[in-house]
Amino acid sequence: MPTVKPPSFFRSRVFVLLTGICVSLAGTFFLPARPAPAATIVLDPGHGGNDSGAGNHGEFTEKRFTLTLAQQVAGRLAARHRVALTRTADVTTAPEDRAAVANHLKADLMISLHLAVAPYCGDRTAAVYFHNDERLTIPPELTIPGTTNAPGTDRPAWATLQTRHRHQSQHLAATLKQALIDTGAADTVTVSGAPLVALMGADLPAVLLEVGCVHPAVALTSQQFNQQLNDIAEPIAAAIETAVKELLR
Ligand SMILES: [Zn+2]
Questions:
Q1: Which range marks the domain in which residue 177 is found?
Q2: Where is the MurNAc-LAA domain (predicted)?
């Protein structure tokens, strides 16, 4: 019977070394790069229906801008993520219904899209807001019959949901700011806290993004409308990708 010699010390070290190199090479050449995490993203086209938003002197209103922008950004993200819009047509949409879409889907993040209004904007500026309700009073029309107030406050419970995500929302705002600057979409991006009725019922990280620029008394032309959309849709989608990686890492 042939005897099987155990591998020498030298041989086993070579074996281990070669195995290690092969595993490393396999990792380098054959394993796919780790994909970006898939997220559920809710885009909220600001205004709609009876509420035209800014630029209501012409055909190219803010409500139309935000819906088109949301559709274009969604189209760029849909291959990798589940993306939902709070409205897909020119319809009046209540603030609590916008947040409810995101809550119902258990979304990872929500971004409300708006058009900035001069003189608080310029050609290459953007603003990101997170919800800060310190001075917030709830308008009576937002009180939903049958709902209870949050303990110790005069606010409906749903209107306090965003407060527990304040830090994450603030971080999301800072991430989007940096990503918009890095992608060259804007030179100046401000981050601020403000009472945001559309986001206060959102039980997830959520921010409001103001882009573009319209003068309150001057209608946007078709060319300005399309130019502003073309300039911003791709960078916003890229910035959201960066934010998703940051949030879900
Ligand atoms: Zn707006």
A1: 40-248
A2: 41-241
The rounded Å distance from CA 141 to ligand 1 centre is 19
Ligand 1 centroid–CA 51 distance in Å is 9
Q: How far is the CA of 213 from the centre of ligand 1 (A)?
A: 11
**Spans of the chain, pLDDT less than 50:** 1-7, 9-10, 14-29
Q: What is the pLDDT, as a whole number, of residue 152? A: 63
Distance 148 CA to ligand 1 centre (A): 29
- Mean pLDDT, all residues of the chain: 83
**Number of domains making up the chain:** 1
Measured in Å, residue 53 CA sits from the centre of ligand 1 at: 5
For residues 113 and 211, is the Cβ–Cβ distance under 8 A? Answer: yes
The two tokens of residue 80 are 């990798």
Say what the pLDDT of residue 144 is. Answer: 59
In a domain, 75, yes or no: yes
Q: Return residues with CB closer than 5 A to ligand 1 (ion).
A: 46, 53, 114
Distance 210 CA to ligand 1 centre (A): 8
Domain contains 184: yes
The CA-atom distances, in angstroms, between 127 and each of 64, 101, 185, 211 are 19, 24, 12, 7
